[in-house]
């Protein structure tokens, strides 16, 4: 973000001018108070902030305010917001591995489940409660299509992401967010996510 007319000799005689930059992700604003003060030259600031955007999030907003949130005194800044840009870095190298629901549901493979997500863990302890009363093992063993098929591949994706021995394309947080973003929803939404997880879970299992 590039700002001008924030402080300096042309702004209230060079005195400090309070500001606030709101960055809102998932409806929750993050306040960034008083980060502008002609740090890059007279009446000029180039501000770069890191923002964590969860998987499946669809909106990020940025707002600049002339306001004294911290009560430090001084006339709030009269600012000109000249430009803004968002840069999304590519994902780190890695991935390319995944084990299927058919692998994870076998009795002889249960000792390979990550300690954070054991077979008896209730599905609702991890995800939105799409399968009331069912454990992760029961969901990964579900038959049929629609939500059931998505549930089975979601549990497989969770275990792949959590396993230290599987180089999976998604993190645990991304798997959880992706499922919770489509449930409750429609069969087309379930099938779209299921198809994505099928591709990832069938890349090749290093544990098999």
Sheet having the most strands? 3 strands, antiparallel
Q: Structural class of the helices, strands and pairings?
A: alpha+beta
Number of strands: 6
Strand content: 5-15%
Q: pLDDT under 50 segments (min length 5)? A: none
Return Rg in Å. Answer: 24 Å
| Average pLDDT score | 88
Q: What can you tell me about this protein's structure?
A:
The protein has a 3-stranded antiparallel beta sheet with strand order 4-1-6, with no helix packed on it. The protein has a 3-stranded antiparallel beta sheet with strand order 3-2-5, with no helix packed on it. The longest helix has 17 residues, at 146-162. Helix 3 (146-162) packs parallel to helix 5. Helix content is 25%, strand content 13%. The chain has helices at 101-104, 136-140, 146-162, 172-182, 187-201, and strands at 2-4, 20-25, 28-33, 44-46, 60-65, 80-83. The mean pLDDT is 88. It has 5 helices and 6 strands; from the N terminus they run ββββββααααα. The protein is an alpha+beta fold and 208 residues long.
């Amino acid at each position: 973000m590039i700002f001008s007319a924030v402080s300096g000799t042309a702004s209230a005689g060079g005195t400090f001018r309070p500001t606030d930059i709101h960055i809102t992700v998932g409806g929750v604003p993050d306040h960034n108070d008083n980060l502008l003060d002609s740090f890059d030259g007279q009446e000029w600031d180039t501000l770069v902030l890191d923002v964590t955007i969860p998987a499946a999030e669809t909106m990020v907003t940025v707002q600049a305010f002339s306001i004294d949130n911290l009560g430090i005194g001084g006339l709030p800044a009269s600012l000109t917001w000249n430009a803004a840009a968002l840069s999304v870095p590519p994902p780190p190298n890695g991935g390319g591995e995944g084990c299927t629901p058919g692998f994870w549901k076998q009795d002889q493979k249960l000792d390979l489940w990550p300690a954070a997500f054991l077979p008896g863990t209730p599905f609702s302890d991890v995800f939105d409660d799409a399968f009331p009363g069912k454990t992760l093992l029961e969901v990964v063993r579900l038959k049929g299509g629609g939500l059931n098929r998505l549930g089975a591949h979601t549990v497989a994706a969770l275990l792949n992401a959590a396993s230290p021995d599987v180089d999976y394309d998604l993190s645990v947080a991304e798997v959880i967010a992706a499922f919770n973003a489509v449930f409750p929803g429609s069969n087309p939404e379930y099938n779209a996510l299921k198809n994505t997880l099928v591709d990832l879970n069938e890349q090749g299992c290093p544990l098999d």
